[in-house]
Amino acid sequence: MRFVPALALLFVATLPTLAGHAVELPDDPNAVVLSMDFRGGRVPRISDDPTVSIFADGRVAMPRIYAHDRSYADRISISELRELLRFTLEEVRFLDYDEAVVAARRAAIPGEAQWIHAPHHESTEIALALPGVAKTVRYVGLSPRPKLAETQAFVALRERIEQIMAIAQLGGREEAREWVALANQKLAIEAPDAAPLTLTDLISGTIRTDGSLFVQFERLAMKDQPGINLAIAGNAAGDVRIGIVRLQP
Questions:
Q1: Quick one: 203 exposed, middle or buried, by C-beta within 10 A (0-12, 13-18, 19+)?
Q2: pTM for the predicted model, two decimal places
């Protein structure tokens, strides 16, 4: 069964800027311009490649990192890639991120040390590489509610990249839109006052090698709209369950 929702994502096609000058993509389409890697945890890796790499031509590569997993591949448009880079440089201010300063400020926040020093805690490493621009930022022990502006911006970038990963894991943009349509069918029944979900609300999605699946959408509450967390889970037999939780402001 296929769904054809009339939904689309809008992306700004402007070039990212650095110190007021446009930043061009590398001439080599095989150059990795942005990558993200998750380290730590108790599950051993079988590959040292980054969890996800985004190339200059828009290709998205997610190699097989764990024995129980598989590889994924997708492609984003050049406009989408430029918008992602613009967000990274101009809104996240990635090049201004100072790991030592952020670590010291985090250590002074009550309760934050448990995330920094807990054993097996995951770290996130994001690397940017453009002509004349290169920087890698590593963040250890990502707390669920970061309190610093710098860490909130880092989490926002991580979530942008995770959304690209989720779309790849669901089989690409068209397949992901089918899950959006299915979610909105349920949402219209269970929460008719909520605005329809879009791909921008997708926060995770995986179809595993055994045929089971998990797709999750989340939209925070606004003044005139309820917050929604909607999860779709299915097993290898094709049984699908959808759960909806309303989120309070």
A1: middle
A2: 0.83
